[in-house]
Design goal:
Shape: rod-shaped
Oligomer: single chain
Helix content: over 70%
Strand order of the largest sheet: 1-2
Structural class: mainly alpha
Radius of gyration: 36 Å
Length: 185
């Protein structure tokens, strides 16, 4: 079962990524080139029309001319064009799978960072703050020595530093997801 949010991100990336759009244009260019090569196997018909005046005699001439391709029906160019069209199609599929992988990895990284932020916000930061406040009150009351208070303060500051680092990492993960999808959120 695929995540609907992730499915929406895949669709958005399919629309917005410039590398995918460029490759789709290459595939379309090769498709048009294939049509051109197939059209070139039929010779062009050239009409001719003329008027001649020669000592009082007026004549009109008309005709059609075309080459008869007996041995050359443009098979080489058609085969080359077919091969290039297939190659560009495979390249499009490779880029599409690469984009999906990038979006999946960025989405997973963002989900991990968001889980860390929630965990720190709900458990670790409030617990460290409570312990620091209790130790501070005990220190003021004279029940705890300075070393214990400073150690608790250091632990609280390290917890805040970890929390700020996780917030930064979440923002970096969001920026990577935006880059993988090809748009800003």
């Amino acid at each position: 079962v695929e995540n609907p949010a992730l499915k929406g991100l895949f669709q958005k990336a399919e629309e917005m990524r410039p590398d995918l759009r460029a490759q789709r244009q290459r595939v379309e260019r090769e498709r048009l080139n294939m049509r051109l090569q197939k059209a070139n196997r039929v010779p062009d018909i050239t009409p001719a029309l003329g008027y001649k005046r020669d000592f009082g005699q007026n004549t009109i001439a008309f005709g059609l001319s075309f080459a008869l391709p007996v041995f050359n029906r443009n098979q080489g160019a058609i085969a080359r064009s077919e091969a290039e069209e297939r190659r560009q199609g495979f390249e499009l599929e490779r880029i599409r799978l690469q984009v999906r992988r990038e979006v999946q990895q960025a989405y997973d990284a963002l989900q991990t960072q968001q889980a860390l932020v929630r965990s720190l916000e709900s458990t670790y930061v409030p617990s460290a703050q409570r312990v620091r406040d209790i130790t501070q009150q005990s220190f003021r009351a004279g029940a705890t020595d300075l070393i214990s208070f400073l150690d608790t303060e250091r632990t609280f500051r390290e917890t805040l530093q970890t929390y700020n680092q996780v917030l930064y990492d979440r923002r970096v993960a969001l920026a990577k997801l935006e880059g993988a999808v090809g748009t800003d959120f």
